[in-house]
Sequence to fold (124 residues):
Amino acid sequence: MADFVDSTVKEIDGRLRELKEEVTRLEAARAALVGLKRGPGRPRGSGSTGRRPGRPRGRRGGNTRGNQALELVRNQPGITIPEIAEALSIEPNYLYRVLPKLVESGQVTRRDKGWYAADGASAE
Fold:
């Protein structure tokens, strides 16, 4: 009798796990179709982010924007932040955080309003 109870409990637990996974999938599909409702007092736009759960928000890793900005500086010595932003199709304010990090690492320097590769070598 104890074996029957143990096996039945295990079967029920397994089925409950499957059902919970199915509920999660269905809720995600519904949210994608109709959007999540905002709670009272929450600002507009604070509902669904349109991203998968567990995925880092906006992070590519590997200093991608920094590397892209560095490549532009090497190819176009004296380039300005607004020009870099336009080339990368991003907002300039982001680059005001990225480029000082490249200065700290010794990869770029700033003269007047332009940015230059620190090693003096350009990709021309």
